[in-house]
What does this fold into?
Amino acid sequence: MTTVRIAPSILAADFARLGEQIRDADAAGADYIHIDVMDGCFVPNITMGPMVVETARRVTQLPLDVHLMIVEPEKHVETFARAGADIISVHVETCPHLHRVVQQIRDAGARPSVVLNPHTPAVMIEEILPFVDMVLVMTVNPGFGGQTFIPQTLSKVRAIRDMIAQRGLAVDVEVDGGIDEGTAAQVVAHGASVLVAGTAVFGHPDGVRAGMAALRAALA
Ligand code: DX5
Ligand code: ZN
It folds into this structure.
């Protein structure tokens, strides 16, 4: 089995020193930097846009994992790719023409990923699997950091991992929301290969390095 990757979410970072926080995560062994884009429409919160992706691009070589929680993401795919996004995730709930958007992400030079809200069934991504590099399973309702992990999403992580294996595909399964020392091992046991963690990394009382180390220790 390949090593589990950790994608710290800068939503929980101190934005007064964002560059430094990203460098700290990089130095502490982060595999990706997760960037949560929210529009106040698809989700009840407004966060950051392409400027923040550009900022992150200037301070790290790590892949930038951009999670678009926005309506009509097809209007912004090229902008985010140009800003430096390596992976672009779009919600199936926002894309009536999901296959077209996935293709658009690839054409823009990024790796396409599709996201499912907690209530959206695994079957919704069955037909798109051969076209994507990653499936992101929301383990909380998108919109805010620091929420409690929904344990019922574990069976969906397993179902998607099985679907991928049955088809002989090389697709990552990422989980996002409430991932910490207590939940990390469980999601991995159910088939997750990439873990997003905001609060557990940037909100750790002893700092980013300690947060990363605690997650790695929980997985060991
Ligand atoms: C939630 C975001 C998450 C969030 C996770 O809508 O997609 O990426 O930053 O935060 P934690 O790890 O604190 O649950
Ligand atoms: Zn996210």
Q: What stands out?
A: The chain has one domain: 5-219. The mean pLDDT is 98.
